[in-house]
Design goal:
Helices cover about 35% and strands about 25% of the residues. It is an alpha/beta fold. It folds into three domains: about 350 residues, Glycosidases (TIM Barrel), CATH 3.20.20; about 190 residues, Class I glutamine amidotransferase (GATase) domain (Rossmann fold), CATH 3.40.50; about 60 residues, Immunoglobulin-like. Pfam families: Glyco_hydro_42 (PF02449), Glyco_hydro_42M (PF08532).
Length: about 675
């Protein structure tokens, strides 16, 4: 089943008198799912009272109109009585400043940002509320899935990205326990952090950016801790209702900039859930960049690791941000293109934020598919048209086909940039620039997390792997990459792989972690540059290396004759950063040169089975394959350009709604096509 839905209820929005009418309009428009928020502070105003009146009525209305319900349980808005009981459980920043409960953008009904769940009494109260809600609705015929954590991250960071959380007493105690389990003795910790503590009581998390080793561990602790918080929510939900699926969804990808401040790494948040999702607000936050939107979808798919994933929130209307930065309504064809992107990326659900604009709160009156009074707009018509495509049995029963080109991302490299630069922007631009260069050639990209690769190896279906800004590496990752190259995989890395160890210390020999033998080179020196372009058209920025060859061949040289691109078997090292150059200026020369380096000898960089080939490959053209249970293929082709685009097919396929098989198609401007193997 493919889910098409919209968020509807977040108290105190919308008006009760409109509920029946609005849910009926949703169903008539072709939507099958509605999301309802179960907000802790709103529903439990006193310790002994849980008010189910709103959700009871909404669940019954959803059933009446044939809508499945996603219940989003919201614990990030704690009841005010609990804050009175537990005044030490407020989130504290690095200067011990508390965040008092208040109304905010994502909780207009108050209670944000909740209290720190490391406090045992806070968690006990939250678990009791969660279990009560799940027990109430587990047998309701409208219930479809439990979304147990809306956009998991360290909640206050969304409003205070210049501060670091959380330094409350309970979190400090858990951090010390985590350190003892990780390092066992103070002497081992001293060796890792380059310190001279004499007792565990002296150890404290960092409160300045320049403390690199401890900042890396402080953030790593919080990745583990938030995963622990998620596991507890899932356990409570499954105990109360073992019969329904449990999911969570993140706000964007951590690798687009929120990884360090928000402690958001989606790859750590999929283990205990049955399904996963991501939020996207492309007009509001991405300047309608289809590549950044697709990156968020591809990272969600990569994190889900074969589990179903949704576009769990997608913008429905205008956005408000810092007054002058507010954005207009997306056009109907843009709304349709977001849905086409979701289909192409392999999503199994699309849920809009939201059906109608809210009437109270900082988001008012934004983000709705409808007008503020609930009247459907042309954007609703676009959703209706794409819902018909998504609900077609051939599409609805298909799953994403894995790509053969990998993009290797590293949380430790992002954290190192954050700890040293006070910002992970440099790493963000490298990852997005590399991804853009790949998808602008219509490569079917799999985003691979270095920790998963270190543990499990490079997946067998990956033929070529690009490694942008490979600042940190472990010996386990190096071993996995060696095994990948040994089996014939093509590895292309940017400058200075493994320059830093996992604690942020610069290694004396680069490439580090044993990677020098893999690439057949040694770095003699490195320097900062503005930009450089090689005769092949390949451009680089920020830094270039002076390399000495130790077994590798020089494929291309800088103007001074030193190697710019070195090849050792199927391992290639580029002595600068094409990702940063392409992020700044996405030029055809860099795009083509990278495709050549990733390609097997005398062969194009290939997508799986080369299902569809564009007559002219230009940025904004994407095609991805999906597979039905019987093995038949579904190809989704998306055209973000302003002109119709021709493409040829590797086999006869039937356009959805077409009269018969074809071997070539024209994809309309700013639209898409689904093609089905007969």
């Amino acid at each position: 089943m493919f889910v098409i839905g919209a968020q509807y209820y977040r108290p105190p929005n919308p008006p009760r008198e409109d509920w029946d009418r609005d849910l009926g309009r949703m169903r008539a428009a072709g939507l099958d799912t509605v999301k309802l928020w179960a907000c802790w502070s709103w529903m439990q105003p006193t310790p002994d009272t849980v008010d189910f009146a709103d959700l009871d009525e909404l669940m019954d209305l959803a059933a009446k109109h044939g809508l499945g319900v996603v219940v989003n349980t919201i614990l990030e808005n704690a009841p005010y009585w609990l804050a009175q009981w537990r005044p030490d459980a407020h989130y504290l920043d690095q200067e011990d400043r508390p965040v008092r409960l208040t109304a905010a953008m994502n909780t207009p009904g108050g209670g944000w940002p909740g209290l720190c769940n490391d406090d045992p009494e806070v968690w006990a109260a939250a678990a009791a509320f969660l279990g009560t809600v799940v027990g109430r609705y587990r047998d309701h015929p409208a219930l479809r899935v439990w979304d147990v954590w809306n956009e998991p991250h360290l909640e206050p960071a969304s409003y205070f990205p210049d501060r670091i959380y959380c330094y409350c007493p309970a979190s400090l105690a858990r951090f010390r326990e985590w350190l003892v389990a990780r390092y066992s003795t103070v002497d081992v910790l001293n060796a890792a952090w380059r310190r001279r503590y004499s007792d565990w009581a002296q150890v404290d998390p960092p409160r300045l950016f320049e403390a690199v080793p401890d900042m890396l561990d402080w953030r790593e602790f919080w990745f583990d801790n938030l995963a622990h918080w998620l596991e507890r929510r899932v356990a409570v939900t499954r105990e109360a209702d073992p019969g329904h699926q449990v999911m969570t969804h993140v706000a964007l990808s951590g690798f687009t900039g929120q990884l360090a401040t928000h402690t958001l790494d989606e790859y750590t948040l999929t283990g205990p859930v049955d399904a996963f999702g991501t939020s996207s607000f492309p007009t509001w936050l991405m300047a309608d960049d289809p590549v950044e939107h697709l990156f968020n979808l591809d990272t969600a798919r990569g994190a889900a690791a074969g589990k179903p994933f949704w576009q769990a929130e997608i913008q429905g209307g205008r956005g408000r941000r810092d007054a002058a930065k507010s954005t207009p309504h997306p056009t109907p064809d843009t709304v349709g293109l977001w849905m086409w992107n979701s289909l192409a990326a392999g999503a199994t659900g699309v849920v809009f934020w939201q059906w109608r604009p809210e009437l109270l709160g900082p988001e008012s009156p934004g983000y709705g598919l409808c007008a503020p009074d609930g009247t459907p707009t042309a954007r609703v018509d676009a959703v209706t048209a794409l819902a018909a495509v998504a609900h077609d049995p051939a599409v609805a029963e298909s799953a994403p086909s894995p790509g053969n080109v990998g993009l290797l991302v590293s949380r430790r490299s992002a954290l190192h940039a954050f700890a040293t630069d006070r910002d992970m922007g440099l790493y963000r631009e490298a990852v997005l620039g590399a991804y853009r260069a790949l998808v602008d050639t219509d490569a079917a990209v799999e985003v691979l997390h270095d920790e998963r690769v270190a543990a499990d190896g490079v997946p067998e279906h990956i033929e070529a792997l690009y490694w942008p800004m490979p600042a940190t590496a472990t010996s386990a990752l190096a071993g996995a990459l060696e095994a990948f190259v040994a089996r014939g995989g093509r590895l292309v890395a940017e400058a200075a792989p493994g320059e830093y160890d996992e604690h942020g210390a610069r290694r004396p020999s680069v490439p580090g972690a044993g990677l020098g033998a893999l690439f057949g080179v040694r770095q003699v020196d490195a320097d900062i540059i503005d930009a450089v372009t090689l005769p092949s058209g390949l451009s680089g920025r920020w830094q270039r290396e002076v390399l000495a060859l130790h077994g590798a061949e020089c494929v291309e040289a800088f103007a001074d004759g030193t190697p710019a691109v070195a090849r050792h078997g199927t391992a290639v090292l580029i002595a600068t950063y094409p990702s940063l150059a392409y992020a700044a200026e996405p030029d055809a020369g860099t795009r083509a040169a990278l495709a050549d380096l990733l390609a097997a000898p005398s062969r194009e960089l290939a997508r799986p089975s080369r299902e569809l080939v564009w007559a002219e490959q230009v940025p904004g053209l994407f095609s991805r394959a999906r597979v039905r249970p019987d093995g038949r293929r579904v190809v989704v082709a998306v055209n973000w350009t302003g002109a119709p685009q021709k493409a040829t097919l590797a086999r006869e396929l039937v356009p959805l709604g077409g009269s018969g098989p074809v071997t070539s198609v024209v994809v309309p401007a700013r639209s898409g096509l689904a093609l089905v193997e007969p």
